[in-house]
Amino acid sequence: MDWIEFKPESPGPKMLFPMAWSLLPLIGGTILMLIRDGGILPSVLLASALAFSMIGVFIGANMLPGRLDMLHLLPSPFVAFIILMQPPPTIAIALALITWSWDYRNAALLSRSAGTVYRLNWDVAKPLPVLSGAEMFSSKWAARPLLALGDLKVRGIRIGGRTMIEATRKFNFEEE
């Protein structure tokens, strides 16, 4: 197999701005929540912190599709809505910190996975071989994630009219 090494643009710098700015309302909302024992302003600050952190992860997930499921973004808007309903202050603070940490973990995962990827030209008429132990998302080529085998993620991409398979490391279909 003729794998081509490719280095995609890292989403780290683009995710850094919203993630960094999310700290200001997170800390401000936490402090106000502790001082005032509730209120709408601290709740709005905590909810906006979660919105900023979710935007950062969303930018990274769009720059590196197939590395992170969009389901990983769902906790942020739901928790932000819960916080706007003004639960007890300790619960609101705990929910905000846990969810922000979740978003930060996802952003860190995207930054780490932005290293070298490997691409292989693929004929769309050819079915994908079934690998033992792999979680197959599709048996035919498609421009989306195709399979996962542990930490190996394989997805179909289309660049300039060429169809390719992109993987996080080189592998042989026969060996796996």
Mind explaining what this structure looks like?
The chain is an alpha+beta fold. Helices cover 47% and strands 16% of the residues. It has 4 helices and 6 strands; from the N terminus they run βααααβββββ. The chain has helices at residues 12-36, 40-63, 75-84, 89-112; strands at 4-6, 117-121, 135-136, 145-149, 152-159, 162-167. Strand 4 (145-149) and strand 5 (152-159) form a beta hairpin. The radius of gyration is 20 Å and the shape is elongated. 30% of the residues are buried.
Q: How much strand content do the residues show?
A: 15-25%
Helix and strand sequence: EHHHHEEEEE
What is the total number of structural domains? 2
- Report strand order across the widest sheet: 1-2-6-5-4-3
Tally of individual helices: 4
**Rg measurement, Å:** 20 Å
Q: Characterize the largest beta sheet: strand count, sense, and whether it forms a barrel.
A: 6 strands, antiparallel
Shape: elongated
Brief overview, please?
This protein is of the alpha+beta class and 176 residues long. Helices cover 47% and strands 16% of the residues. Helix 1 runs antiparallel to helix 2 (40-63).
Keywords:
alpha+beta; 16% strand; 176 residues
Secondary structure blueprint with pairings:
Blueprint: E1 4-6, H1 12-36, H2 40-63, H3 75-84, H4 89-112, E2 117-121, E3 135-136, E4 145-149, E5 152-159, E6 162-167
